[in-house]
Amino acid sequence: MQLRYAFRLYPEPGQRRALARAFGCARVVFNDAVRAREDARATKEPYPKAGTLSQQLITQAKNTPARSWLAEVSSVVLQQALRDVEKAYRNFFASLKGERKGPGVGAPRFRSRKDARQAIRFTANARWKITEKGWLLLPKIGEVRVKWSRVLPAVPSSVTVILDSAGRYFASFVIDTGPDNGRARWDGPDPDSAIGIDLGLTHFAVLSDGTRIDSPRFLRRAEKKLKRVQRELSRRQKGSKNRAKGRLKVARAHASVADARKEFHHQLSTRLIRENQAVAVEDLAVSGLARTRLAKSVHDAGWSQFVSMLAYKAERYGRTFIRVGRFEPTSQVCSACGHRGGPKPLDVREWTCPACGILHDRDVNAAKNVKRAAGLAASACGAPVGPEPVLAQREETGSHGITCRSRAA
Fold this sequence. Notes:
37% of the residues lie in helices and 17% in strands. It is built from nine helices and 14 strands.
């Protein structure tokens, strides 16, 4: 499997200008390739091949007055821009044919210098390297200082230099690693240890063992500062230097929130994968919930990012990861005897099973049923409980301050 390791870069002023030149050249080649494809489509001619585009847009273009400055950057950066165009069109056509999983992908669009993210990629052919003093040597840019937070587990196959909307530079290394490389870092958990996770808004996660993990609500806590810097930006004159500074200030405030949320997801997902041999979580319809009045709270929770981290860490460290169908009525079924009591309003946080008389906490019971639905636990009589899937009730869409799940609850 392939992993990415990102580290902060601190280029000098001259290196920043060189990087800006490389970003611009890669962007121009990308746009020229998209334009060539669009012209061929408009005239109903065959799409030009990658070799033809490379010859016309890079090799020949360097000898013309209009594109002579392409020779000022590494040719590998320009070739990788063409590879990005090829990949974008492959994904687009695969999406049209239904061969690509996930949401639909549109046709490649032209890049702009005002995009929130600029990136260039160096492969092994570019002869980049990490120097003995730990700096990153890039062709036609020089040695750039790197802030190393950990040791790379293997030799990287490529490095991508990224400039984000907050004006920060990062080096993203691609590492080819097997699933066994990280297992020696931790002592193996109990082979029978398994956990079910119920995600929500009041508590970010409730585990089947009764553990509750509070929701940090990073965006809600930073709203006051975000509102202030956004108000300052709106008062700046368009096109002025002060407006550019204000835009950067807003971007940095949002980046701080995103970084804190990502760090929280990394720490929690790592702990759960390290302590359990099997992890089960519900497959939430996040895109649907993000269109409700709970949208801000749903985005602030970042469930999709957290579940993605659980999935790839489980694969890397040899754990079992299971997604439970979103229509499993986990809050309707008693986790002790399997009796199904029917839908319950979200203001009902505790309920007593009429069959066995056990008092259930709504979220803990749901987490236990998530674990059982994944086949990781059995009922009191030893048989797995698997209720038939039903549609979510209309009144179960949730409200602020209450755990929300896109299923029959």
